[in-house]
Design a protein that fits this description.
single chain, alpha/beta, TIM Barrel, eight-stranded parallel β-sheet, two-stranded antiparallel sheet, 12 strands
């Protein structure tokens, strides 16, 4: 049985919801940016009430189109304050969204159970030492520091296998590993250093991946994070991320139909409703088809 933290994921388990909590004022989606303890408490309580299964805490935006770099000390301070506050108001497993080893170490020592590394353990060479010591559950994103050319779907699988091998090399069980296809992080150009450079169209790449999620899983549960992202804005011609709610929920529902096991979202209540409907209706359709045969 696969687990992310204390929560069973994948297989016949319900689709799980990971609520996003950003402590970085520079993040692209302003609605879930919280920097004060009271605001953190209120948002976490709301996400828990709305049906979140995990809280994912970030202390530095990694959006490829933003200049958002902060020091490791600042990132760690933001995340630690959030973790301590979350622990006072709920018992949900905490995920730390970082690709820097010192920040991950601080968060895991404070009780985070999950490392969500958008670089798939590749950005900071010391990260494997940290996960070897603390043995957290992992969300591994597809990532490369070299330009990716050719068939993006096939190359994505190669990148995920590389990260999987890094995790296995320090004895992380495959039952505690989840893949993330890194929708939104593959670009031709960017101002940050936490994206994968490609020589093809990022928009077409994101749509290709979303349509082919089942082929990416390779036996592991799959986390998909499309909430308010750029491809939705481009497709619907909506520039401001705060106006992409309906598009986000539809994209998340499609991700579930296409094989996602965990949805990472800014909009927990709306996402939970959509996921519940998709799972219920899809199951009924499957039973009906089976009975007819």
């Amino acid at each position: 049985m696969n687990k992310l933290g204390r929560v069973s994921v994948g297989g016949t388990n319900p689709v799980r919801i990971m609520g996003i909590l950003n402590t970085s004022p520079e993040s692209f989606y302003k609605k879930t940016i919280v920097t004060k303890k009271l605001a953190i408490s209120n948002l976490v309580r709301q996400m828990a009430d709305d049906g979140a299964n995990f809280i994912d805490v970030g202390g530095m935006s990694t959006a490829p189109y933003l200049s958002t770099y902060v020091s490791e000390k600042v990132e760690s301070r933001r995340i630690i304050q959030a973790i301590k506050t979350i622990q006072r108001v709920c018992n949900l497993p905490i995920s730390v969204d970082t690709c820097r080893a010192s920040v991950a170490k601080d968060a895991l020592e404070e009780g985070a159970e999950i490392l969500n590394d958008i670089s798939g353990l590749k950005f900071d060479k010391k990260m494997v030492n940290v996960i070897e010591k603390y043995q957290p559950s992992l969300v591994l994103c597809a990532f490369s520091q070299k330009m990716i050319t050719g068939n993006q779907l096939n190359k994505l699988k190669v990148l995920l296998k590389q990260s999987f091998a890094l995790a296995k090399s320090v004895n992380i069980s495959k039952k505690n590993i989840v893949f993330d296809p890194a929708i939104g992080f593959f670009r031709k150009t960017g101002t940050g250093q936490f994206f994968t450079k490609i020589n093809s169209d990022w928009f077409e790449r994101d749509l290709l991946i979303l349509k082919n999620l089942k082929s990416i899983k390779m036996g592991q549960p799959l986390l998909v994070s499309v909430s308010n992202k750029s491809f939705i804005g481009k497709l619907l011609k909506i520039e401001n991320p705060k106006d992409r709610l309906f598009g986000s929920v539809v994209a998340e529902a499609i991700a579930v139909l296409n094989g996602a096991d965990i949805i990472r979202t800014h909009n927990v209540r709306e996402t939970k409703d959509a996921v519940t409907l998709v799972q219920t209706l899809a199951q009924k359709k499957s039973r009906k088809a089976y009975n007819a045969s």
